[in-house]
């Protein structure tokens, strides 16, 4: 299985495996502005932004959702991700616990219904987004981390929920286009920001790197499309 869709050819093959409905260079997948669903339930429409009557400050739907979740810091999420460093796929591009978890989740059926294909295809599909989703699940904050196997759809989910931006914050979900493009539709890969190095690069923790492993990397910001921001405490 190709790693990270580094070329137009491998990007096209990966999207075929996932049954994605976007062609190269096409438009962004139409993803409803929705909160991550709970097990056994379809995604629900994001509620209106609530406004505090006292502070007069707006909260996003994900911030409202976070009030019902455990208080988790960015450092805790990065610690979970870092403990997976070295986990590797097999010769077929599968065999990781991240893929196995996703195949067995209700979300797999939902994304197949959206993109086409079949659930078993995820078992050997590129797994960078599944890794990010798995970490959110382990941390207990899946509703504000989101879960998906397709990087483009996952990034669009953050944008639709108004948790998308251009600042490299620790714990942010970072999306890459190896060609340096800035369109969500061109995203090739995803991982976590560990820190902004202040020199035009970021340190990251990523699954499904070019070596088919979870690894820590240093990446140039010039390849970053944008960042998704889960809701952290502190």
From TrEMBL:
InterPro entries reported in the protein's UniProt record: CHAP_dom
UniProt keyword list: Signal
Gene3D superfamilies the record matches: endopeptidase domain like (from Nostoc punctiforme) (3.90.1720.10)
Domain of life: Bacteria
Leader peptide range in chain numbering: 1-30
Peptidase C51 domain location: 123-208
A Pfam family recorded for this sequence: CHAP
Protein name: Peptidase C51 domain-containing protein
Originating organism: Streptosporangium brasiliense
